[in-house]
Amino acid sequence: MTEAERIIGTPDTPEAAGAEPERDQTARPRGRRRIAVLFTVAVFAYALDLVSKMIVVAKLEHHEPIEIVGDWLRFEAIRNAGAAFGFGEAFTVIFTVIAAAVIVVIARLARKLYSLPWAIALGLLLGGAFGNLTDRIFRSPGVFEGAVVDFIAPKHFAVFNLADSAIVCGGILIVLLSFKGLDPDGTVHKD
């Protein structure tokens, strides 16, 4: 096993060495461990997002923005009915359905998950999707039409929240894992 495979969590596969595959009774617990990581990361990302939005709504909404790093970074409470950068405000229901679909796909994929990096990436996506879906369902103006609370405002960039950050970080990690050839089931392929 190469050093890179050891670091990214690729399981030893006897088939790769030309040997007969043996039945590993530890495969199922190892998979469950990865599922536990996925859900732990998702719950952590969701909780951070939820708590941050509760604080923002209670302390920052309807107040002046707070400058964090000069005028380069500030906290400013806004409600975003659209997608990233405020696009598609008329399609809030569609974004809600997309977020729900992402959650279902990740839950189905979790059954075949044996890679720790994939568990972390999917956990970030799942937590972020739940964070924004919670806003879409429970915030005004109504169910499935709610506006997401955004508050992180870098200079010359869109205002976003911690759920958005988790989704972007998870997406970047998935792209990197795909370029490395690591699949969610822990196998490595070379194209």
Overall 3D form? globular
- Measured between the Cα atoms of the first and last residue, the distance is 19 Å
What is the percentage of strand-forming residues? Answer: 5-15%
Total strand count, please? 3
Largest sheet, strands/sense/barrel:
3 strands, antiparallel
- Which structural class matches the secondary elements? mainly alpha
Helix content: 40-55%
Strand order of the largest sheet: 1-2-3
Tell me the Rg in angstroms: 20 Å
Contiguous uncertain segments of 5+ residues: 1-8, 10-29
Can you walk through the features of this model?
This protein has 191 residues and is mainly α. The protein is built from 5 helices and 3 strands, in the order ααββααβα. It has a 3-stranded antiparallel sheet. Mean pLDDT is 82; it is low at 1-8 and 10-29.
Question: What keywords describe this structure?
Answer:
191 residues, mainly alpha, 3-stranded antiparallel beta sheet
